[in-house]
Amino acid sequence: MSRIAYVNGRYLPLRQATVHIEDRGYQFSDGVYEVCEVRDGYVIDQRRHLARLQRSLDELGIAMPMSETALAIIMRECMRRNRLHDGIIYLQITRGVARRDHGFPPPGTHPSVVVTARSIDFAGNERTAAEGLAIITVPDNRWQRVDIKSISLLPNVLAKQAARERGAKEAWFVDQDGHVTEGSSSNAWIVTKGGKVVTRPADNAMLRGITRTVLIEVIEAHGLQFEERPFTVEEAQGAREAFLTSATFTAIALVLAVTALGPVRRPLTAPEPVEVEALAAEAA
Ligand SMILES: Cc1ncc(COP(=O)(O)O)c(C=O)c1O
């Protein structure tokens, strides 16, 4: 079955789903995106993803081109047309099409909207979560507003590629103070020897992951020890466990870091899927 994408008001086979070459997303990375997990036909944490999308648009001064309800209908229609049961939905909104000029386009320029859907082998992800994965560390050379989920992802692309070339699956960005900010497409966590779960506070130097927020709620609901503070690579090396979170990997252990972490870390038990889904169903 050929995949169907939504592009600016039309549902089209992926091959015909194109944007204008003067789209500001193509020319300047002038846009934002969201990736939502779909499980059992539910969009997980849809309300939070759409709220973060709105925030990213506001931070860049791009108008939300339609109501949240209309966007939710498009997401569901994309799921239906792609017969998506388990996978991801990708949403992208750019500042629209205009003659190439760095400054904002004239008022009235319509933002461009693209929505795609694809299935994911979550069973494979769960196997990886049980086995753990390798990471590398790279200097964080990104701009100072990575809290905005912008489509400008070149440092993340290069970091992920560097990880792959070294046989790892993820790269952790490390700031000038030696603190881990986040992964190239995930948030970073450790569990200290004393059993405290630690993750960096959501400042402008990292993306406030939706999975991170949900996991903090689950940790607090279970009364686990938790602290939001920066941690260093050295601390991660000495930690009992280290793991990462993202919408595509709910929680995944790290067993080995090519540059840093020693081998064999016992994977953290992932949060009960049921609880995450319960939150999602409530949000839907
Ligand atoms: C840089 C970065 N940090 C963190 C995350 C995790 O965010 P979420 O849990 O909302 O998927 C992502 C996800 O794509 C990301 O790209």
Q: What does this protein look like?
A:
With 284 residues, this protein is of the alpha+beta class. It folds into two domains: 4-120, 2-Layer Sandwich (D-amino Acid Aminotransferase, Chain A, domain 1); 125-283, D-amino Acid Aminotransferase, subunit A, domain 2 (D-amino Acid Aminotransferase, Chain A, domain 2, Alpha-Beta Barrel). It has eight helices and 14 strands. The protein has helices at residues 24-28, 46-60, 68-81, 122-131, 154-165, 210-221, 233-238, 273-283, and strands at 4-7, 10-13, 31-39, 42-43, 87-94, 112-119, 133-139, 170-174, 180-183, 187-191, 197-199, 226-228, 241-245, 252-257. The chain has an eight-stranded mixed β-sheet with strand order 9-8-7-14-13-10-11-12. A six-stranded antiparallel β-sheet has the order 2-1-6-5-3-4, sandwiched between helices. A hairpin with a 2-residue loop joins strand 3 and strand 4 (42-43). 37% of the residues are buried. Pyridoxal-5'-phosphate binds at residues 35, 156, 182, 185-187, 207, 209-212, 245-247.
Dominant shape? globular
Q: What is the CATH architecture term of the largest domain?
A: Alpha-Beta Barrel
Listed once per kind, the bound small molecules are: pyridoxal-5'-phosphate
List low-confidence stretches.
256-284
Number of strands: 14
**CATH class membership of the largest domain:** Alpha Beta
Determine the CATH topology of the largest domain. D-amino Acid Aminotransferase, Chain A, domain 2
Helix % is 25-40%
Average residue pLDDT: 88
Give the biggest sheet.
8 strands, mixed
Question: How far is it from the N-terminal to the C-terminal residue, by CA?
Answer: 27 Å
Strand order of the largest sheet: 9-8-7-14-13-10-11-12
Radius of gyration: 19 Å
Output the structural class: alpha+beta
The count of domains is 2
List the secondary-structure elements in sequence, H or E: EEHEEHHEEHEHEEEEHEHEEH
Q: Looking at this structure, what is the CATH superfamily of the largest domain?
A: D-amino Acid Aminotransferase, subunit A, domain 2
Count, helices: 8
